Predict the structure.
Amino acid sequence: MAHPHETAPSKPHHAVLPTDAEPAGNAAEDTRGPRLASVVVFVHDHDESADFYSDLLNMEVTVRTATAALLVGPGGFKLTLRSVGPNASHPAGHVGAQYVIWTADGPDDFQRCERVLRARSDHVYTRPGEGFTVIEGRDPNGLPVLVAYPGPDEVARLEIVARYYV
């Protein structure tokens, strides 16, 4: 018997392609593909974190339960905050996502994000990259929060910033 949170195995899906669909070509030429749609972050207090992230990222809290909050931003991107209690740890260097880097909508939005981080975070750092800038602060749980401008759709990322893998 399946547990309530489990789903049945999926069956082959034979979707009809739209008439304007083209076969997959050279990966360097093909700019379509999956996009990140949602992030789930485990936090100490989802209410406090929802206030922080809605302010920083211009997201709206659309659902709130006793243990989670769902925020939706412009373009439909979703951020789910899940309370795991005040004593849960987040060890760096373990398997799993370590950083989420957000992109500001423009220079004014980048400055607004910097103001929010400086008002709500004890340690805020600004790092220039090759053609872009990243500001890093901490959320209420001490997790790193990074915002870049301009985004990768405007300036290609041609480097791996040492801070994020050492």
